[in-house]
Amino acid sequence: MSKKWLAVVGTVVLLAAVGLGGCGGGTNVSTLQVSLNQQEGIWVSGTGKVTATPDIATLSVGIEAQADTVTEAQSQAAGAMSAVMQALEDNGVAENDIQTQYYSVNQVTRWDGIKQQQEVIGYSVTNMVTAKLRAIDKVGGIIDAVATAGGDLTRINSIGFTVDDPSGYQAEARELAIADARDKAEGMAAAAGITLGKITYLTESSYLPSPIYRGDMVAEAAAGVPAVETPISAGELEISVNVQINYAID
């Protein structure tokens, strides 16, 4: 004999998924709903987690030049950026793995206390790119090479780590999440003396974090301080999948 557990009003939803990219962290959500006006059942959630070793580093790097005129600032920036790009390519970074992230030309001002107004004292040019580094063991050396090439104009904003293809890890985490949800549902059904039926609703969300490294060592590298290679540790990533499932009651 069926017992009512949780009332929901169902709608038909097609399977939808948002893919998870290799340059960074994000959430992937997919939903499958196959019932109409489902009025009873057992709702459970499950979580699955796996760890992965990063195989991609994404470096945000560039230059910032300041001068009395726009032309002079642009000239300094262009020269330094050309050297940075060459350093990346010389260290095995493919051209199609380098993408312009940000470019700007701005006035540099200061407050004139006598005139009580802002005064333009120069111009700054900023040019930033993201570089996908596929040789994880060479990241520290690439950072040092870039810092040396760009000199005092070098700006290194951040570095993130991810896996190029997370699908295998997500599949493993998904199996663990569904098994976790199934165990919970079976436990509830056994305690209530009922029998689980088919799955009438299933939704999934997955997350691949991208830890960010920031530190004084990068700034010191730009200033030519360290005599040894900048130490960078990729660590591990935790890939998690969460599911919510509705089981009918037989």
Count of all domains: 2
Instruction: Please identify the structural class as seen in this structure.
Output: alpha+beta
- Run of helices and strands: EEEEHEEHEHEEHE
Residues in helix, %: 25-40%
Strand content: 35-45%
Q: Based on the structure given, which CATH architecture of the largest domain is correct?
A: 2-Layer Sandwich
Q: Please count the helical segments.
A: 4
CATH fold title of the largest domain: Alpha-Beta Plaits
* Overall geometry: elongated
Q: Name the average pLDDT.
A: 82
Strand order of the largest sheet: 1-2-8-10-3
Q: Count the strands?
A: 10
Given as residue ranges, the uncertain stretches (5+ residues, pLDDT < 50) are 1-24, 31-37, 214-226
Q: Cα distance, first to last residue?
A: 8 Å
CATH fourth-tier homologous superfamily of the largest domain? Protein of unknown function (DUF541), domain 2
Sheet with most strands: 5 strands, antiparallel
Can you tell me about this structure?
By secondary structure, the protein is α+β, with helices and mostly antiparallel strands. It contains 4 helices and 10 strands, in the order E-E-E-E-H-E-E-H-E-H-E-E-H-E. Strands 1-2-8-10-3 form a 5-stranded antiparallel β-sheet, with helices on one face. A 5-stranded antiparallel β-sheet has the order 5-6-4-7-9. The radius of gyration is 27 Å and the shape is elongated. The termini are close together. The relative contact order is 0.26. Mean pLDDT is 82; it is low at 1-24, 31-37 and 214-226.
